[in-house]
Amino acid sequence: MPSRSTPTDVSSHSSESALPSTESNHNDEVAVLTTPQDSEYARLTDTSQGRVKAAFVVLARNKEIYALRSSMRYLEDRFNHKYNYPWIFLNEEPFTEEFKNMSRQMTNAETYFGLVPTEHWSYPDHINQTYAQECREHMRAMGIPYGGSESYRHMCRYQSGFFMLHPLLDGLDYYWYLKEKRDLKYGFTIALGEYRATVATLWDSTLEFVKAHPQYIYPRTRPDSLLNWITDDNGWSYNLCHFWSNFEIASVRFMRSEGYQAYFRHLDQAGGFFYERWGDAPVHSIAVALMLGAKDVHWFYDIGYKHDFFEHCPTGPSWLTLGKCYCDPNTSFDFTGGSCIPKYLSVTNRTTTDFLVVQPEEGDED
Q: Where is the catalytic site (predicted)?
């Protein structure tokens, strides 16, 4: 799940929540699980069963070390101190020793530092840089966030098609196993709409790809097709919905697949990363919606997350008690204007409780 190292609040389970509620038996030697939910939760949080081949991937600059340390502290305190998943840091410039030392101090897990290849953070030969600059100036004048930023466009291009190819990710699966025999290829927490001006021709380029490469497209006739989550008119236009990539858990195999990489190459050739401001989030999201089924995608409803002004917090009162989240459900973005969660639930024919790791007993309230 690549991200820029801006301050992030992840409020999943606390260390105490890994311990089921117990009561002593008559000889005070054996702890007894009190409810089926306790038993299920204990199974899912049992760290003795090993872990998936996964890692945290962070795209960061040396000057962002303090923001990074804040994000790491949240993740380590709320989750990773139990699992010790490694951290992979990537930068278009060599990391300083200060950055390396200060990031290592925040975790007991292994840390790896990699350099982004120059060809992945520079203009392709087919890009007219003069025109690209004019496009940036036009978007800056329009007041579009990051509209005038050159580095932001390089970052979006890199995270759209190159980060998953870095050799430090070799050997990782990124599959997230929530239930036995269920493997997922993409997970998210927040879904919202994109600025239309930044992706004006993204859908046109996507339709060109779909027409040229139908073999990579998930059949739209299947009941778990996600096509109608990203379009309101049966595919004629893009409705701007996307999974926010500030928090994403993805399968390396999927991101490296020929289908996804062919899609990225097609978009890269079109030039929209530089002539517009195509973001990695809508690129990832459109690929997921076109190439995967709903069974392959998971909304991490039970993980509280906040970035900038957007926050996801589980809204079921019983889950706040069971999962020990400390976020405020009243500030959650999920069901406010601009959120694409309601449409996602409608298209997939699901409710929030379908995404709980620990399901309530039948007859209980959500």
A: 248 (nucleophile)
